[in-house]
Design a protein that fits this description.
This is Flavin-nucleotide-binding protein. By secondary structure, the protein is α+β, with helices and mostly antiparallel strands. Helix content is 24%, strand content 28%. It has a six-stranded antiparallel beta barrel, surrounded by four helices.
């Protein structure tokens, strides 16, 4: 069995609460990032604004230098955006390692309904990355990243659309490449964890339902729109929908069956 690669534990990414839920392994963290339709990207917008900025963006983990690298190997985070957006302008003018940013995302897999409000929770997966972002200036790497991100929206969509993008489209689109410094994830699986003091109280247990409501993302039936004249829904779309719906449901339902760790058994 090969060595498991992990992110270094630093002040910025080390979990303080529910440490047993934390993971620093590259594989789970990258999988959560790549399985999210939206990534929330935070950065310091400058001295004139006291508030940190946060943007919803589309992105994907990958390696241009080693395109066959697996999900549990060192990868960069590529983010897609518009040429004149604030984050792109900041990254363009940033010297040194690049613009310091944080990438975060989360997925809810279940509602944990317990006897007491304080013990309610979610089954969830969350991940954060810290790194330095620079604009991708190499045209081949930019096209590679655009294909990577497009296919993360829907598998094989790049080859089933008008490609390559024309000159105006390439100029208006900017790709940020984030060199990841550290990362961490948190995962909660399992069923309900009630307070021990309530176990024998039949007045409570006889009137309150407890359990887990599984939650998963579902893709619906495609609805034709726009200028495309193709009547039949292509196989690359229908197979993607069927595959993702089955995977998402299986993940949410299997999470319930995981035995709670000792730290959560009151």
């Amino acid at each position: 069995m090969g060595r498991t690669l992990t992110y270094p534990k630093r002040v910025s990414n080390t979990a303080n609460r529910y440490k047993h839920r934390a993971t620093y392994d590259l594989g789970p963290i990258h999988s959560i990032i790549n399985g999210s339709q939206v990534l929330h990207v935070s950065f310091n917008s400058g001295p004139e604004d006291p508030f940190p900025a946060i943007l919803p963006m589309i992105g994907q983990m990958g390696s241009y230098d080693f395109p066959s690298a697996s999900i549990d190997e060192p990868l960069d985070c590529y983010l897609h955006g518009y040429v004149s957006s604030r984050i792109m302008n900041l990254a363009r003018n940033c010297e040194g390692d690049g613009l310091p940013i944080c990438v975060a995302t989360s997925k809810v897999d279940g509602l944990i309904l317990s006897l007491t409000p304080n013990s309610h929770s979610y089954n969830y997966r969350s991940a954060i990355l810290h790194g330095y972002a620079k604009l991708v200036t190499d045209e081949e790497e930019k096209l590679w990243a655009m294909k990577l991100i497009t296919n993360s929206v829907l598998a094989d969509r790049w080859d089933n659309s008008r490609v390559p993008p024309d000159r105006a489209e390439m100029q208006s689109t900017v790709i940020l490449k984030v060199k990841v410094v550290d990362g961490s994830g948190k995962i909660r699986d399992g069923g309900v964890s009630d307070e021990r003091k309530d176990y024998g109280n039949e007045e409570i247990t006889n009137r309150i339902w407890t359990g887990v409501v599984p939650v998963w993302e579902t893709f619906g039936q495609p609805v034709p729109s726009g200028d495309g004249k193709l009547g039949e829904i292509p196989e690359h779309i229908t197979s993607f929908i069927a595959k993702k719906n089955a995977e998402n449901r299986a993940l949410a339902e299997s999470a319930i069956k995981v035995t709670l760790p000792a730290e959560e058994q009151h």
